[in-house]
Amino acid sequence: MFNKPFRVKSNTPVKGSERKKLKAELQKCYPTITEEDLALLVPNKEDMSVMKIETHGGEIVSAHVVGKKPIVFHIRDKLYPTIYLLWILPNKLIPYFTTWNEVVPKFNNGADLMLPGIIVKEEMGLRAYGRLNKGVTVAVNSNTNSAAVAVGITALSSEDMYMAGRRGKGIEILHCIGDFLWQAGTKESPPELGPPGSQSSDNAKETAPQDATAITEEGTETEEKKEENVVQAPDVIQECSPDVGDSTEVQVEQKNPQESMDELLNYCFFKALKTSAKKIELPVLTSNFYRLHIVPACPSEKILDVKKSSYKKLSKFLETLKKEGVIDVKEFTKGVESISAIRYDHERIRSFRVDINDKAEPAPALEKVGEIDKYLPPVITRMYAINAVCLPLFAGTYRKGTNLTTQQIRQHLTEYVRVNQLQNATNPSQVNLDPILSDVMLKKGEVAASHSWEELMSRCQAKLSTVYEMIFPNQLAPVIVKGELEPVEITTASRAGNKKVTLISGLETYRIDLDEFARRQFIQGFDLKKAKNKK
After folding, report:
1. According to DSSP H, which parts of 357-475 are helical?
2. Cα distance between residue 142 and residue 149, in whole Å
3. Cα–Cα distance between 277 and 338 in angstroms, integer?
4. What average pLDDT does this structure show over 251-264?
5. Minimal CA–CA distance to 111: which of 35, 169, 33?
6. Which of 66, 400, 430, 436 supports an S-S bond with 424, CB 3.0-4.6 Å?
7. In angstroms, rounded to a whole number, what is the distance separating the alpha carbons of residues 244 and 516?
8. Does residue 302 contact residue 359 with C-beta atoms inside 8 Å?
9. How far is CA 491 from CA 494, 502, 504, in A?
10. d(CA 308, CA 257)
């Protein structure tokens, strides 16, 4: 449901009565929840708002956001927990189903969980899938971590799942890690809770699926085989070992999250040098290299975040590589660093190999349409970042650095004027300026008691910092460009012998492959010459 970008219609702060209403609804939906649990989920002093969303499919959804995390969402007046909520209270509120770790990335592409992808204990017979009715809210975790990775509803009752003979859809996925509802929160990784059943048994053995796609796409068939099965309910986890064949124990390596992010950052950097940046022109701004090469090199099932690594900043990571002799970094302009040299003969670069299972597409989004490569442009949205000047106006709802659309700014200003009763009583088209609006909107030495709605909006946008959000096809995280986007510039110049050349700059910003672009222009120019000769 949230695997494609949605439109935020409003994001309104709530009062104390709304907190009580949400707590009562949570207690009604989940009778096992305690007062201590509610205090964790909805702290009295934490910022809270209701975000109204229009999904890509036109569905209207409302989500309660507490402390920058969506914790529940409502669809047609039915409440569902987010994975953020389930991470706070793991394995407590709703039933869990377990699938293989290889299947989890498929959810973010809009796939549902098919019955072959659910790890169960078939020897339990009719109760292998529990005692659930159709349409019950459930969570999905993986065989390597019992933390929830998806929320959905059962497509069949438990008995019907068993009678289906492991064919067909088992769970309709509504929300999962990596989707845009998850991105609307803090984007944190799931807690490491250990594999399902690790508390009761240290010798669980599992057989991973040969094809993760076959157990997440409706209508596909899988090869019949006997597997180890695990069934997980809110309070009970049962296991059994494989029926046939030899099996080696799967060792789950518990890594520090920072170490994992360090490995991912290094992998993406060296992969970029082997792929998109193989023939890059130097020097190149470090910020551009990160945005145009390192980020696109990240595997599709993972999310790269330098702040979650031990380096914390890109400059420190590049400084480490400089000390190792992999690259040179210089300041050609004060405060602006550029990569000035890359030593491709360095051992780390020569020995690096791209993972054969890496399905990420570091090159610009091109897809085959017959015999022609079709470039898919990004969806570009002009946004405005909250800076120190405008922070007092947005305090309590948004934090510094938050990117807002024009509609979100207008909605916030309207709500601010309404709450503070600033609309002029005699002339509704005018807004009276309180001290905060005066400090933000008025120029130095300027005096005014009121502004029109249009003037208020235009001045607010002028005070905020301009950013652009670029969402490229087949890429999970959007690319944020600060300041104005550089346009593609096409100029002509003269070279030796009065030869005319065409100079094109700015293609990298839009992920247009330079070699492919040059190849196409050469082919089109050659065809044009042949057409003229025929005439």
Report:
1. 391-394, 406-419, 435-441, 453-463
2. 7
3. 14
4. 70
5. 169
6. 430
7. 52
8. no
9. 10, 6, 7
10. 8
- Give the Cα separation of 292 and 286 in Å (integer): 10
**Average pLDDT for 332-357:** 83
Which of 25, 134, 7 lies closest to 74 in space, CA to CA?
Answer: 25
DSSP label at residue 306? G
pTM over 0.85: no
Closest CA to 8 of 381, 317, 316, 407: 407
State how beta strands 169-176 and 113-114 pair. Answer: antiparallel
Query: For 95-118, what is the mean pLDDT?
Result: 89
Nearest C-alpha neighbor of 72 from the set 113, 21, 9, 35? 21
Mean pLDDT, rounded, of the chain = 79
The tens digit of pLDDT for each residue in 173-187 reads 999 998 989 988 888
- The answer to whether residues 469 and 403 touch, using CB atoms and an 8 Å cutoff, is yes
Strands 78-81 and 96-99: unpaired
- Tell me if the bond preceding 283 is cis, omega within 30° of 0: yes
SS (H, E, C) 188-224: CCCCCCCCCCCCCCCCCCCCCCCCCHHHCCCCCCCCC
Q: Which of 8, 22, 16 is nearest to 51 (CA)?
A: 8
Strand partners for 482 = 467
Residue from 309, 227, 313 nearest 265 by CA: 309
Map tokens 């491709």 to a residue: 344
Provide the token pair at 175.
Answer: 């929300």
pLDDT of residue 221: 35
Residue carrying structure tokens 């940046």: 277
DSSP string, 2-46: -SS--EEEEEEE--HHHHHHHHHHHHHH-TT--HHHHHHHS-TTS
User: CA 515 → CA 368, 375, 401, distances in Å?
Assistant: 17, 14, 36
The DSSP code for 291 is: I
How is residue 386 annotated by DSSP?
A: -
Residue 520, token pair as written in the block: 């196409």
CATH for 382-468?
A: 1.10.245.10
Complete edge-to-edge strand list for the sheet that includes strand 479-482: 403-404, 379-385, 465-471, 479-482
CB 283 within 8 A of CB 340: yes
CB 97 within 8 Å of CB 121: no
CATH number of 7-239, picked from 3.20.20.70, 3.30.420.40, 3.10.400.20, 3.40.50.410:
3.10.400.20
Check pLDDT > 70 for residue 471: yes
Which DSSP letter does residue 294 get? I
Spatial distance between the Cα atoms of 273 and 416, rounded to a whole number of angstroms: 49
